[in-house]
Amino acid sequence: MAESYELDERAQILLRYLIKSYTRDGQPVGSKSLAQQAGIDVSSATIRNIMAKLEDMGLVNQPHTSAGRVPTEAGYRFFIDSLLEVKDLGKSAQQSLSDAFTDDKTSTDLIQTASSMLSQMTHLTGLISVSRPSRILIRHIEFMKLSDRRILVIMVINSDQVHNKVIHVDRDYTDLELAEAEKLLSRYLVGSNFNSATKQLRVEIKQHKDDVNEILESVLQVMGSVCEEDNQDALLMAGESNLLQFAELADINKLRELFELFNQKRDLLHLLEGCTDAEGVQIFIGSESGFTVLSDYSVIGAPYQINDEVVGVLGVIGPTRIAYDQVIPTVDLTARLLSSALKSQK
User: Fold this and answer.
1) The domain at 9-83 falls in which architecture?
2) Over the stretch 300-326, which tens digit does the pLDDT of each residue have?
3) In whole angstroms, what is the distance from residue 127 CA to residue 279 CA?
4) Structure pTM?
């Protein structure tokens, strides 16, 4: 919960313009520059006094004694909660987002589109978590014989998730043998829950004494690993390199820690989970995320739904000097468009 600050109108105006200037340029803002931007007819000394009060309140700080001031984490939070005026995205941006979610895309394509569009529209890193269903249904199984005693196993899981895996076998199999193995697997698994059907199938396999068991066992192992992976929450990302454009994020050690966080994904997934029970857009500034590595970053997220059930969270990550007035409506609209597109799928 943000602290309560008593600021008069002039202090609010100056803080708003200071954050606007710092968001744009990434440079500390001096009193003279601030007076020109804000259009307030007061002396530089008066502005310096107001800035000193804001600094005492912890809303701004001065990196160096001769430099201007920059907003603090608390300053950003007060700005977002009390001073922010969210912009209209504009018809062009709204149309670009809307056009990206076409009817011919699968759910997987739509989710990937959301991540990439967030990155393109905000010039930050797009994030989207995908909650996998606990019930794994096998829709289709097909074998394709390759060279060097390899067999391509093609599986369709749930509505449209296609998985291709190559298995290695100890001998050459005829097309008839592959067809028999495919038929046996299909009889037990297609249209059934994988986990419950596997036990029955293994009993059937034991009754077959021919060499086709090798294929069946291998396929079951592959399918088991695929289904186990598919039953875990996933995190898709786009535009990680966008963060390199910000000078304040150029510290190689900090970048290494951030990209390690990207690779592990677990902590980011945990952070995004905090948005699932909330309505609308949620904003984590610096230490609010609970992760030291994100102390210089902000994460903005919003849940998306299928038939009024939250199935994941999308958002962006960038420096704390994000253009919140533009990014917040972009995240919000993307979540609503993705929810609508997923709901429309048959």
Assistant:
1) Orthogonal Bundle (1.10)
2) 999 998 877 888 899 999 999 999 999
3) 18
4) 0.72
